[in-house]
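Predict the 3D structure for this chain.
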Amino acid sequence: MPPDPDPPPNDTAPTIDQPQPIDPSSPALAAQAPSYTLGQLVAYALRLGTLGFGGPVALVGYMHRDLVEQRRWVTDADYKEGLALSQLMPGPLAAQLAIYLGYVHYRILGATLVGIAFVLPSFLMVVALGWAYIRYGGLDWMQAVFYGVGAAVIGIIAHSAFKLTRKTVGRDPLLGSIYLLSALVTIITESETVWLFLSAGVLVWLLKAPPKFFRSNTTRALWVPLLWLATATITPVATPPSVLWQIFTFFAKAGAFVFGSGLAIVPFLYGGVVKDYGWLNDHQFLDAVAVAMITPGPVVITVGFIGYLVAGFSGATVAAVATFLPCYLLTIIPAPYFKKFGKRPDVIAFVDGVTTAAIGAIAGAVVVLGRRTLCSEGWTPDPIKTALMLATVALLWRFKKLQEPLLVAAAAILGLILYPLVV
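Done. Predicted structure below.
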């Protein structure tokens, strides 16, 4: 009897090699080829940099909503690792997170293109505003606009400083002492001391997560005063007289020490731009901060406006590149090792110390800038500016989701109305 013929193939039966669907939220997705192109991610970063108002907290929230929840281009685990790295490293939070998310699947090329796309729109906006500011800055209507905006900016910085203080310092006596010292130094010197930041980070590291050689009380008693003495006596290296070189070195240093918030760069910039180099006066500097408030993207982009006022488009470009270069390098270099070392107690303790000192400097800058903005002579406050500042703080306190650009725009309108009454 001949053998039975082979049964017909069953096309509906599953095979052993048939791939099974993967949950988009699963970590296994990270190991697969990305479901988006680099061009799509760059286009998204360009759009977010053009329309992303609301500050760093809002921007990182948009990225989670769009890239993790809706489009599922990035896993929640990758997003959280990028956010943690951005909080540990100096630099503007939202820009660093965007750079890291570009790195996840497309490595250095992705990080570079996404970072440029995210920053470029706001850079072009502040350069255009810088051109208009120089050309029309003497007009009464622009002076009136910044009369109101300056007071509102002081209120915004004061409210941000309070929130950062409550969130970061809390009731920790060590962090509280560092915070107060940093604020006092900023008020007295009217500038930001980089070495105070670094020594604060090292001090918290040695006291809260010390290495083995530092764990005895005798060793601590010897090293703590020596640490503060060493950092207090170090002076910056002199720079060549070229203005563009001065801009590059100063803003690169600023970008390397912006911990805690984009607003942390404000006291640092004030000390160099106004006090040391004399590139801008007090009112021009506050106008530069206001310009950053009314444009999308990171607050740090104010460096482009400042650079333009100092040395035109070349100055704006050099200032922006120098500021963002450290945060770019401090994102892509540690990215491959962050999973292993990012949660170490000594790393976290160092960052806590530096961040606390930075927030103390912001609080000190509120006093310095507030006095120069709200007081016409000495410590006598301008009643209209003071009322605008207090109203800004009250509105931010009452309405938690109120966007800062709306307040700045309202202050500009009030400035146009009220300025003629005081001149």
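The two ends are 115 Å apart (CA to CA).
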